[in-house]
Specification:
73% of the residues lie in helices and 0% in strands. It has 12 helices and no strands.
């Protein structure tokens, strides 16, 4: 008998998920030759799972500057509760596996790291910035791995290993494009963390970070089966050409 558990969904979290799911279906479904008419076969679970996660993000962003240290600690532990809720849901839908559980753990870890960096509870270092950048895209990786699970396909490790540095690059480019708005809205931004740590040297540090993940993608791409290389390269080239932007001048605070 299935458990009756309520899942906290906020409208703004649902709206953010809709925007992300539009991107995900456009860019990731072609990797698996899924035609448009089959999108809605997989969309409900993808949408619901991510709405739970994004609804928590909405709450944290709203309350970021209004909480005491004790209440911040309570709220950030909500990532633990979300992990339990999503795990339960995936088990109910017979989609749960160790790969998805690892994704949920990394989303939980990212959420706590981001929150700690934004509230100065975690010291900013180059290592922490890189770790956070690598964890950040696991919301998309969760959706991708869940889709593969629903397709009853095996996980193609060489392809997934090549995808993740490309996915990190997508987030880095997005942070550059949204740098000024994220600064105004006090939203987490990798480039802003580099600015806080390195000030005038931040643009060069960002270039080095981008170059590192580009090299990593090229190294891992060579291990992808020949039959999948063209499909993966089209994904990478599309993202790279669309999202690359100039590195903005850092906004320096006293």
């Amino acid at each position: 008998m299935k458990n009756n558990i309520s899942y906290p969904i906020l409208y703004k979290g649902s709206k953010k998920t809709a925007d992300l799911l539009h991107y995900f279906t456009r860019e990731y479904f072609p990797l698996h030759d899924i035609p448009f008419e089959r999108v809605f076969r997989y969309a409900p679970l993808l949408y619901f799972v991510h709405s739970i996660i994004y609804s928590l993000d909405v709450v944290l962003e709203k309350e970021l500057n209004a909480l005491t240290k004790d209440s911040r600690s309570y709220l950030v532990n909500a990532y633990d509760r979300v992990k339990v809720l999503v795990t339960d849901l995936l088990k109910q839908e017979d989609c749960h596996n160790d790969v998805l559980q690892e994704d949920l753990e990394k989303i939980r870890k990212y959420g706590k790291l981001e929150y700690g960096l934004m509230t100065d509870d975690v010291a900013i270092t180059d290592e922490i910035i890189a770790e956070t950048a690598e964890l950040r895209y696991h919301n998309i990786r969760l959706l991708h791995h869940l889709l593969i699970s629903m397709l009853n396909k095996p996980y193609n490790k060489p392809m997934l290993d090549a995808l993740w540095p490309a996915e990190v690059l997508i987030d880095l480019y997005t942070d550059l494009r949204q740098y000024h708005s994220d600064h105004i809205n006090n939203s987490y931004n990798t480039y802003q963390m580099l600015v806080k740590l390195h000030r005038e040297e931040a643009p060069e540090r960002m270039r080095q970070l981008i170059a590192h993940y580009k090299r990593l993608y090229r190294e891992k791409f060579t291990k992808v089966p020949i039959a999948l290389q063209d499909r993966l390269n089209r994904f990478y080239i599309t993202q790279d050409s669309f999202l690359v932007v100039d590195i903005p001048a850092p906004i320096l605070e006293a």
